[in-house]
Amino acid sequence: MTVSRRTFLSSAVAAGSIVLPLRISSRAYGANDQIRVAVIGLHGRGGSHMRGFKDQIVALCDCDAKVLGAAAESFNTQTKRNVDTFQDYRKLLERPDIDAVSIATPNHTHALIGVEAAQAGKDVYVEKPVSHNVWEGRQLVNAARKYNRMVQTGTQCRSSRSLREARAFIADGKLGAIQYAVGTCYKPRQSIGKLQRPLKIPPHVDYDLWCGPAAKVDLYRPSLHYDWHWDFNTGNGDMGNQGIHQMDLARWFLGEDALSPFVMSVGGRLGYDDAGNTPNTQTVLHNYKKAPLIFETRGLPKQNTDWSTGMDNYRGSQVGIVLQCEQGSLLIPSYTDAIAYDSDGEVIKKFSGGGDHFANFLSAMRSRKHTDLNADILEGHLSSGLCHTGGISHQLGTTMTGREIRDAIAATAAGPLYAESFERMAGHLDRNGVDLGRDTVSFGAPLEMDVLTERFISNDSANRRLARQYRQPFVVPDLSV
Predict the structure, then answer these.
(1) Whole-angstrom distance, CA of residue 282 vs CA of residue 318
(2) In a domain, 466, yes or no
(3) Do 255 and 382 sit in the same domain of this protein?
(4) Same domain, yes or no, for 295 and 313?
(5) φ/ψ (deg, to 5) at 116
(6) 124 lies in the same domain as 142
(7) What is this structure's pTM?
(8) CA pair distance 39, 284, nearest whole angstrom
(9) What is the pLDDT of residues 113-168, one digit of tens each?
(10) What kind and span of H or E run contains 281?
């Protein structure tokens, strides 16, 4: 009779013949060794993880039993393999025969699960943003290094062949020095609605586990899943949802390896009244010394709050980035394409082709070199941190009219490029019936940062928002010492 390794381990544990350690040491994987992966978080992006790691998956986990059951049934049907299921990720991490976890849960649990997985001897693939705040992102980096874990960020653009070639093209100075970068996340985001009474959490959801480190509060939106993105308690708005991909690309091409020394935000949740509190319209400046990075988020359509009119674009970028250089520009309009233009706007080179980000992670697991990861956790932390600091500026903002904001921008170190970005945003809002002579927008706090300590300079209110008050027992440990 053939006995699988998992069956043997389970039987041995039950018989008390072996003791399983909480942590396992790093092991070298041969070319034919099976790497065993568990996916945690199966709603939405988790489906891509299941497809990406299909041949490696041995377990699935979700705190929503209904989502868990449906995902397991679908996987078992498609692969003709049964996998183990867990509703509590902590029970899954106790399994010594799981080599890696792939995390596609809501943002507020990414760092906690990632750190605990590293402590349990697992390698980690974690969705973007890798954290809910700056401090816990740094702890995930610390965990990766302390426990010698491979931790890949889910910014899959870093594995696109075309974008790697385009970055080398820019780094070689083919268009001269970069003058500025503009990232755009112009993506339709309609109202999520607002309930008069708290949402009734269905019994198949372990809501305490779902909340994890976040404050356990009543919800007044109609949907538990996905719309958590638009609540600062659990999400980071669209800049930290979709925009993190483009923010990461912009920082990567700029060659910056730290958080920005100056950040400020202007924006708000405009055009409708719903249960969300993150901006649907926002412009953020990260004023790096070599070249500024401006990031623009727009969730409203081109005009008249009419979704059939489509979305704005900036120089061909709707969800992408534009790099303006001394001798031309580079447009990245997708995850797999880039176009280089000369100073007259003529196309001089096109780049195309994707890559397999999941395969890159598995390859680094075998080499045990974090430098082989296309999106090592340090890169994920820094790009996620740019989204978080932009959010902090917004949350510390003062509501102003358009005229007041223009005057306030002129009084800061932001400069004319940022003033132009605000004017683009103001025109967009005007086309959607938002009157900045009457309606107010949040003028965010201008914040200076010590990039070595990742702390704001002389601003206690901002520094308190670099981390959160964790809810017991879901506490991210301090691994800074």
Answers:
(1) 14
(2) no
(3) yes
(4) yes
(5) -65, -35
(6) yes
(7) 0.93
(8) 34
(9) 999 999 999 999 999 999 999 999 999 999 999 999 999 999 999 999 999 999 99
(10) strand 281-286
Collapsed DSSP state (helix, strand, coil) of residue 433: coil
Could you tell me the two tokens for 198? Answer: 């708290």
Asked, for residue 218, whether it belongs to a domain, the answer is no
The pairing of beta strand 123-126 with beta strand 178-186: unpaired
Closest CA to 270 of 235, 246, 305: 305
One domain, residues 89 and 55 = yes
The candidate with the shortest Cα–Cα distance to 145, out of 462, 373, 311, 406, is 373
* Closest-CA residue to 373 (of 94, 219, 144, 214): 144
DSSP-derived secondary structure letter, 30: P
The kind and range of the H/E element at 11 are helix 5-15
For residues 182 and 175, what is the distance between their CA atoms, to the nearest angstrom?
16
Helix (H), strand (E) at residue 207: helix 207-211
Give the pLDDT confidence of 276-302 residue by residue, as tens digits. Answer: 999 999 999 999 999 999 999 999 999
Residue 39: inside a domain: yes
Where are any strands of DSSP class E within 100-234? 100-103, 123-126, 151-153, 178-186
- Which residue in the block uniquely carries the two structure tokens 């106790």? 94
Which domain covers residue 22, as residue numbers? Answer: 8-157
Which residues, including other chains, have CB under 8 Å from residue 245's CB and lie 6 or more apart?
A: 128, 155, 156, 157, 335
Give the whole-angstrom CA distance, residue 347 versus residue 75: 45
Which two structure tokens, joined as six digits, stand for 439?
């309606």
The encoded tokens of residue 466 equal: 């670099």
Is residue 463 in a domain? no
State how many domains the chain has. Answer: 2
Using one digit for the tens of pLDDT, what is the confidence trace for 295-351?
Answer: 999 999 999 999 999 999 999 999 999 999 999 999 999 999 999 999 999 999 999
